[in-house]
Design brief:
single chain, mainly alpha, about 0% strand, elongated
């Protein structure tokens, strides 16, 4: 059961897709880093001193949360993929051995 903000984030990422959500998140990060580099060139500041808009903060939060919630790749699934690749490799090896 998801709470309100989790449901909103899940629906957003499900609607736009994980790849697009990742691209948007990276674009927001690039924008912030560009502003930080410009500001730090003028004075000694920390990243927390650089202003972020309310939209950037909320959108980053929703996208990160949505990406975490929609990620279905678990360690067990990764392990199953590895085992499948090993079985496939062994089958090809046995096939080559028989053909000799």
């Amino acid at each position: 059961m998801l709470v309100g903000s989790e449901k909103k984030a899940f629906e957003l990422v499900s609607k736009i897709g994980a790849i697009r959500a990742t691209r948007i998140l990276e674009a927001i990060d690039r924008r912030f880093n560009r502003r930080f580099r410009y500001a730090s060139g003028k004075a000694m500041i920390t990243p927390t001193a650089t202003n972020q808009t309310e939209l950037e903060i909320n959108l980053k939060y929703l996208l990160k949360l949505g990406l975490m919630l929609t990620d279905t790749d678990t360690p067990e699934k990764a392990h199953q993929r590895v085992l499948a690749r090993i079985a496939e490799r062994n089958a090809e090896r046995a096939k080559r051995k028989q053909s000799r």
